[in-house]
Design goal:
The chain is α+β, with helices and mostly antiparallel strands. Helices cover 50% and strands 22% of the residues. It has 6 helices and 5 strands; from the N terminus they run E-H-E-E-H-H-H-E-H-E-H. The chain has a 5-stranded antiparallel beta sheet with strand order 3-2-4-1-5, sandwiched between helices. The protein is globular, with a radius of gyration of 19 Å.
Length: 165
């Protein structure tokens, strides 16, 4: 099954984070299934930063915990934590198969200073529910792998923000 890439720009980081919260809720409701998601921000100095739920970070944290517990058993907790963290990070790096970080940073350079973008790799979606929800935040489609027709529908839903129902 192939995934669909969608990148939507917002005026500020706060709006992008609100969209991520909405997407998390939609995922819990099974209205969308995300393979990867990230918020790219461009600060006032023009630097692009990525905020991503990282499999590598989760793996490193879990590895450090287990390594620490094993290390305590063998009276070498710091060594155990270091080995556990390295193992967890390596395992996390292997499983991070989502959107390429370089690609996300390149998209981030298209943002205005202080702006943010939500970049998603979507496996499955119930379009009407998701469009109704994220449409209320506005935004501009930066890039997508959607057909021209579907991308136009997405942009139209984003453009309706604040319009009378």
């Amino acid at each position: 099954m192939s995934s669909t890439l969608v990148a939507i720009a917002y005026e500020d980081k706060a709006t992008a984070h609100e969209v991520m919260v909405a997407l998390e809720r939609l995922q819990n409701e099974h209205s969308i299934e995300l393979e990867d998601a990230v918020v790219a921000t461009r600060d006032n100095d023009g630097k692009v930063k990525l905020e991503q739920p990282s499999t590598a970070a989760a793996g490193a944290g879990g590895g450090a915990l287990w390594g620490g517990l094993i290390g305590l058993l063998f009276l070498a907790p710091l060594l155990g934590m270091a080995i556990g963290a390295a193992t967890g990070a390596a395992a996390g790096a292997v499983t991070d198969v989502g959107v390429d970080d370089d690609f996300m940073k390149e998209l981030g350079t298209q943002l205005n200073e202080g702006g943010a973008a939500v970049i998603l790799l979507v496996r499955q979606v119930t379009p009407d529910k998701v469009l109704d929800e994220i449409g209320q935040y506005g935004g501009h489609v930066l890039q997508s792998s959607l057909s021209h027709e579907r991308e136009a529908e997405l942009q139209a839903a984003l453009d309706r923000r604040g319009a009378p129902a």
